[in-house]
Structures are given as structure tokens and as C-alpha cells.
Amino acid sequence: MENKFKYSNDNKRYHTLTYYYKKKFNEKVCKVSLNANFTCPNIDGKVGFGGCIYCSKLGSGEYAGNKDESLITQFEKGKEKMQKKWPNAKFIAYFQANTNTYGPIEKLKSCFEPFIERDDCIGISIATRSDSITDECLEYLEDINKRTFLIVELGLQTIHDKTSKLINRCSTIDNFDKMVKELKKRNINVVVHIINGLPYETEEMMIETVKHLNELNIDGIKIHMLGILKDTPLEKYYYKNKFKILSKEEYVNIVVKQLEYLNPKIVIHRLTEDPKEDDIIEPKWLTKKFTVLNEIDKIMSKNDIYQGDKLT
After folding, report:
1. What count of Cα atoms within 13 Å lies in the side-chain half-sphere of residue 288?
2. Region 181-201: what's the mean pLDDT?
3. Which of 35, 100, 153, 279 keeps 20 to 30 A from 306, CA to CA?
4. CB 292 within 8 A of CB 271
5. Fold held by 17-302
6. 250 burial via Cβ count (<10 Å: 0-12, 13-18, 19+)
């Protein structure tokens, strides 16, 4: 049966990243994760210490490249692995580890500029925090956006300040909203990270986070399940407080409801986490990424659900 949903060409009922890249670049696009050895204002004491409670001692870079290697070496190694599966792919340099605009402008330029003119690199994706983009940085991002395809990925996790304080985010929703508006004024592609299953959040609260993002004209979203990793403050908090962990079924049902409320123009970059089995304390089902994705597809198909169905 032909897919009725105009933002998917692979029988999905949501706006897939595969469809978005194919339409924009007419070819397979892969992201190569890089570690530029940035830190975070929530680690070094500028806004807080210790980082968010779910971050490992390596920060958010445990699945990025090797910070002891040059960025070009990291890129070439990642590219080589992916070309074995997709020989004709093009690549995005993904600055994933920690807060990649948190530094002097000279460092930012030394990191980003080498990838702007590469024929095999069609864009740059920069993961950062809304409180770590200065006015000077905004001007530089605007300039990059004129020269290559640029994505700025902002970690939000939740719109609820009470939860943000509990997880030691050290950032407010007001600050986040203002920065998204500044980036969109410059026509910069914004992708937002959120986390389901944060301690004591209800299904309604998680859906409220998605509804809020509809109002900000964002371009893409990554939806994660809270994973309790070994050697994190969250591990200690969980053992002490035993807060509820979402089951796979609960998570899948919440994601489907979030998709129903999400503007169909928003590209779905991720719908689940995929941690290493040796790293995860709970929930163990997180290591079965494709099972989770298949369950989401099954429910949407069974109930004839498409992204954005509940928008009024």
C-alpha cells in the first residue's frame, strides 16, 4: 500500500531523517561523530558542577571519536567504516561530545573550518547548550550557515524547571526559548534533544514538552529514553530513591502520543537511545533499539496514526 504520509518514503508514519536527507541531497547521508575535547559550563563550574546527573564521567562524549586524535583523523576513520556499508554516501561532521560552542571563537573556527570546504562533507552538526552561544558565536554560526549546511543541536530534555533542577541541568526554559528564536531568526536549522522517563515526570508532562516545541518552529527532534549508566550521579540517585523506570511498552506508547502532537514538518532524528550493554544499569530493553522502533511502527500502523494527527 502506498504511504499516505508525504514526509516518508520508507513506509514510516512520521517524518523520517532518511526522507529529509534524500529530498535535500538526493543521496545517502551519514553523520561522523567527533570529539573536539570541549568541556561544559555545567561541569567546569560556570553554571554548575558535575554535569547533568545522567552524564557519565566522560561527559556526553563516550560514543564520539577519540579526543586524543585530530578531528580530521577521527573523521577519516568514521568515514571509512561507514563507506563499507554505503560506498557513495556523503557525510556530516557531527561535533557530538559535550558543549561544542563553549570556548573562544578562535577554537570554534579551528574546529569547524576544516570541514566546510571538504567535498565529502556536505554539512556540520554542532551539539551544544542554549546558554553557551555568545553573540559573537551567533554571528559565526550565521556565517557558517551561508557556506554549508548547518545544524545546531540543543539539549533541552524537558520544559519543566522542577525536573531540570532535579537533574542538575542548570538551565531554564526561558533561556532555551530565547536562543531557539535567535537561531531561527538567522535561518539556522535547530534540532532539539528531549528525554522521556525523567524522574517523577508523568506522561502528560512529556507530551507538554513536545507541544511546547511546536511553538518554537524547530526543524528536528531527538527523543531519548532516560538511561541509567554506570558510574553516574543518576545511578546513585536511582539506588537511593528507586523512582519508576518506564517499561518498553510505556515508552513506546508515550512516543506514539508525542508524535501525534508533533508538527509533521519536524524531522525525527531519533526515537530511542542505543547504549552499550556493558554501560547500562536500567532499563535493559534500551539495548534492543530496533525492537523499540518496530513496536512504534506496529502501533502507529495498527491504529492508523500519523505524526501530527492530533494537531488542531
Report:
1. 13
2. 97
3. 153
4. yes
5. pyruvate-formate lyase- activating enzyme (3.80.30)
6. middle
